[in-house]
From TrEMBL:
Protein name, UniProt field: Toll-like receptor 21
Pfam hit, one: TIR
GO biological process, one term: inflammatory response
SMART domains linked to this entry: LRR_BAC, LRR_SD22, LRR_TYP, TIR
Gene expressing this chain: TLR21
Cellular localization per UniProt: Membrane
TM regions (residue ranges): 735-758
Membrane topology summary: Single-pass type I membrane protein
Family from the record: Belongs to the Toll-like receptor family.
Native source organism of the sequence: Boleophthalmus pectinirostris (Great blue-spotted mudskipper)
Amino acid sequence: MTSHTCQLLVVTAVLHAVQLVTSYSFNNCINKDYGKTFTCWRRTAENISAIVGDLPLSTINLTISFNPIRHIPDKSFVHLPNLIQLSLERNKLSTLGEHAFQSLHQLQVLNLSTNNISHLEPFLFKDLKNLNFLALTLNKLKVLPNQIFLTVLKLQILHLEENNLNNFSQIASAVSHLQNLRTLNVSFNSLTSLCHSNASLPPSLSNLYIQGNNLSSLGCRRSFFSKLKYLDLSFNPWISTEAFEGVDLAHLNHLRLQATNVSIIHFLNNSNVRPNSVDFSNTSLTNDSLVELCKVLGRRAKNITHLNLNLNLIQQLSSTSLQYCPQHIEQVSLSRNKLKDTNCLLFLNHTKDIKVFKAEHNHLGELVSCKGKIIFENLIDISYRYNWILSVSNNAFYNTPNLVSLTLNMNSIAKLSRKAFEGLRNLENLRLDNNLMRDLYSELFQDQVNLKTLNLNSNRISVIFSRVFSSLGKLKILDLGGNTITRIEKQGFHGLTSLSKLILDDNNLKEIDSSQYYAFSDKLKVLSLKSNKISFFTQTTSSPFMNLSQLSKLSLDSQRPYGLILLPQYFFRGLHSLKELYLTNNHISHLAPDAFDDLTELQYLNLDYCCVGAVQLQPGMFKNLRNLTRLIVENMGLQNFSKEVFGNLTKLRSLQLNRNVMHSIDVDTLESLPNLEYIDIRNVPLSCTCENSQLQNWTVNNANVQVVFLHDHPCQESTKHKFYSFDTKVCYADLGQYLCFITAAFLFLFTSFPIIYVKLYWTFKYSYFVFRAWFSEQWRRLRDEEENCVYDAFISYNSSDEQWVMEQLVPNLEGNGSSFKLCLHHRDFEVGRNIVDNIVSAVYSSRKTICVVSRNFLRSEWCSLEIQLASYRLFDEHRDVLLPVFLETISEQQISSYHRMRKVMLKKTYLQWPGSDCTHPEQAQKLFWTQLRRAMKENSQYENDLCKSTQSECEISGDIHYLQP
């Protein structure tokens, strides 16, 4: 076999072995849903073909952002005809080829925002016949070609804001034929007028955004806005009231005039606009002009329900400020004014139907008691966030008893009176986060029996006193994060029987007290304890989560200052429903192999930067996580990736191994993850050696498991070389030489075996029986029970000598007063049992084995096996069990070919049957039986005593001793 042939065989074998699992990678993109959605962010490639050239035909959604791409050439996406959404925002695009989007007939969404595009080719969108959304926001466009939208007849939404467009007539002409256009946004351009030629806006257009331009006049026909429903003219500081003279605004549902020079009162009196469609935010209203506005609304808009007065100059409201406004107003917003006091909402006394009131971003300093004030039965939502509120007095909301939502966050509340929320029995949502509160008292929430969400995040609470939440039996979400909590009293969470989400992030808790969780053990689903001071220095014997059997999400990230340090062995016991676990940034020194054993339902595990230094994960660590679908083990210092650790994750789909220190990854382990779809090995120092040759083949030649940015992965030895392309031929050549050697050895054995078999057939067969007997369980059992032998002697003889055995041996040993019990094969072997098992049983059930040796005996296969077993006990077990009896004289030359028998003769003294040629046969035979009986009774001393007592009868010939009477 040639070396080249051997190499081909090896390559074929290796390829076959590693193709059990398939993988794929893309140069500059990451796949999100198996071949359909791709994101290509923050890459260094400047050529669009380098980014999208390797994407599959199945691509539907594609996002290419934050890249240094400057030009899109013709036919860049021709290989992606199934694209439906394409985003090219936040690149450095300045030019687009006229046929850049050729063949994208299915494209519906195209985003080209935040680039440097200053020019569009007339037929750029020619093939985009199904396009319905187009964004060109934040570019440098000055003009639009007339034919630019000629073929995109299905376009519904067009964003052109933040460009340099200055000719509205050109814009109108470009979009006039778009019969499906609903939204046109040309905000923050350089338009000075809406004057246009004969071309009119499409009748389908309902939303027009023109804010942030330089309009001084509209310059349009009366019917220009007649089809619009939403018009935004905000932040056009030069536009005045006179600009609307003769313009039809009667069909508008919403009009915004923020930061314009329009006198809102004059505008309402001199236009046909419906007052209830106008947003009065940022229209320079003052305390006095507000009264005038209400008078107009009272005359012309009695059905108005929403009154937006944000961003005005209103500083103070009296009980008469809104007396002329329609009584059926449901929502009033006074955010971003300069209010210093709400005076218990007395200014709303004429709006009996008020439901929502907002006064955000004002200068409110306190909320005083409103007991005895006008009751607002219908008010259900109040928001005072982003004010300067320092204190909330008792009964501050006494006159709004039916509040459902109360927002007081982003203030400076340091004093919250114990009865501040008295009477609010219908309250469901309460936000007090980002204040200066220090203490919580049991009386504070005693009336909030229907509260469902309570946010106390980012205050200065240090202790949770006993029974402070005892009335909140319906509370589902409690956020106590961002405080300085160091202690939770024994019944601190008493009463929270419906709580499903508890946030205790960024506090100073040093331990997890299991007794705290009894109150809501059956309901709690989410528990966040990240950024506390929890740590363990010794193993614990119990879990603090034993009662949280329904918990589905647990966060223990970033414990301060040094992390958890040690993860106790039974720490997660009881969390049988947990699906998400976060342990990032914890500097754990040791992970016990059974740390996660109880988390049988876990689906997401994040261990990013959780450990200290290099980590050797213990075998079986993830053995019970059979439902895990996403595992993040980034930056853990992992040194190994073995099947013993990761092999049981049969449902794993996403595996992130970034920034670890392993030099190789076991392909067999990857093959044991049948559902793996995504693996990230960036910044793992893989060596470009033969050790990783199979891994390279696995990552390059397969197609189901995405290896993120494989083509950028450098070799550890040299960053100039890439892992996916390092030369592996030498690896296959070495294996080929070994394969050739193995093949040659196999052929030699294959051709030699028949010859060896013919020549050594009996040796093989004999060895087989000995091997089988040696491993027999019965052998071992009988060895252990030797002291309770069944027989005195097992008689091993050839069938040709059976007459002597039956006529001489048996009568003299079992009769004549001898009373020995003999084992004879024809009499005592078990019928139907394997003959080898019978022989083994006979040898080990007898104290002695008497071999009746004759020339026929030496030639017998079964006799040879019997003496082999008996001699094994003699030589290897050092047991004196063998008694050779020669029926006829056999010369040393004749016996030398029987190696085992010759070895016995050199070791043992044996008996010679005195034949008829003996001088005194009767006396000799009598002495023979006497010596044989004595040998059967004796043990190790038999040989010496026998020789001494019969010295006169012994004749020595060579190394063989003959005992003759």
